[in-house]
Amino acid sequence: MNARRMSYLLVAVIVIATTLISACAPAATPAPTAPPAQPTKAPEPTQPPPPTRTAVPTITPAPTKPPEPTKVVTNTPAPTATLPPLKCEKMANPPTVAAGQPGSADKPIVIGFVPSGDTGRIARAGNGIADCLNKITGLNFKIEVGTSFAATIEAMGANKAQVGFLNTFSVLLARQKYQIVPALAVLRKYNTNAIDPDKDQAGKLTAYYKGQFIASKASNIKTFADMKGKTFCFVDPNSTSGYIIPNIILKANGINSEKDFKGVQNAGSHDNVGIAVYKGDCDAGVSYIDVLTDAAANLKGKYPDILDKVTYVAVTDKIPNDGVQYVKELDAKVQAAITNGLLAMSADPGGNATLRLLYTIDGFQKIDATFYDEFTGVLKKAGVDPATLVK
Q1: ∠ CA(85), CA(125), CA(240), 5° rounding?
Q2: pLDDT of 146-195, one tens digit each?
Q3: Do 117 and 138 lie in a common domain?
């Protein structure tokens, strides 16, 4: 992150810190969603913001033309597409655990998933991952798809889930509140859209992604100013690209999401935001880039004319990817075995297909606890302290 970006965020969001913190009460969580390099400079907005909120280097405008933490959703009907077989060869020197310990037959390790997409798809992929990890490590697993992003965080905080597939902002929250241990960052083939200045990176494996503002073409929204008085869809108060960063950008462009929209709703998933804007339930919304054409979401397959009815308004700057985390109480040898098992899965065609079904995961890279520090620092300089946002 360069100094210009940090100073921008500081000026833009100190104004919104109080509002944003109070707005981000725990909401629906699980399964994600839904990407850091040199920040890109954004063009000047076509309609200048107020004098104290001039440049917005974290976005590129388009051209002018409290849930119950133990609740789970695991029985939603899953997609029927056939996946390649998983290899799942048993590792050398797998860990051994005593009866009653996490990973034993009578106490399976719980893997928590956030509901950032279709919960049936997530549950199907999650069960495939749990079964494969069982064969690779000899440990026993079960899955839980949380009813909200916050539910999965709280499940880990209460040690009711020992492994998490948390989205980026949930990682920051869980790390500060419960000292969870980040172990892997997701790698994805970079997804983009027509107005992204980094669209030449399409298809390259990266550890970052971006968010996007979208709007119904019928709403005639072309700039942030056009969004005032319209209906707006967020994903979830703990979604990085579907709430936190977009709120910062909206504030920087003179829009208070609590006062300046005709109506606001949290759609619960990125897929649902795209569908809501397509159907006209919301005039505009935010999601990861590009939920409209992403193969896992398959919105274009379900709604072939979605690009005729929905347009891109702006994109955010780069956001570090989600990943895999452990509770601090989980034995280090067990953590290492699961990490190596997931890396083996990502290198296998069948395992890779299952991970792609889950959250469009193309691979993993090992990380340490400092991986998210720069991004956390930027948010704090902007007046957003993740530790205060989940009670």
Answers
A1: 140
A2: 999 999 999 999 999 999 999 998 999 999 899 999 999 999 999 999 99
A3: yes
Instruction: Determine the structural domain holding residue 19 and report its residue range.
Output: 3-27+42-65+195-320
Alpha carbons 194 and 342: distance in angstroms, whole number? 33
* 213-271: pLDDT as tens digits: 999 999 999 999 999 999 999 999 989 899 989 998 998 899 999 999 999 999 999 99
Task: Measure the CA–CA gap between 204 and 295, rounded to whole angstroms.
Answer: 16
Q: Is the peptide bond before 260 cis (omega within 30 degrees of 0)?
A: no
Single out the residue of 289, 320, 302 nearest to residue 194, CA to CA. Answer: 289
**Chosen domain end from 300, 320, 340:** 320
Dig out the tokens for 235 from the structure: 């994903």
Q: Which residues contact 174 (CB under 8 A, 6 or more apart)?
A: 153, 156, 157, 164, 166, 180, 325
According to DSSP, residue 223 is labeled S
pTM over 0.85: no
Q: Are 83 and 353 in contact (CB under 8 A)?
A: yes
- Mention every residue, 6+ apart, whose C-beta is less than 8 A from residue 254: 49, 50, 53, 224, 225
- How is residue 243 annotated by DSSP? I
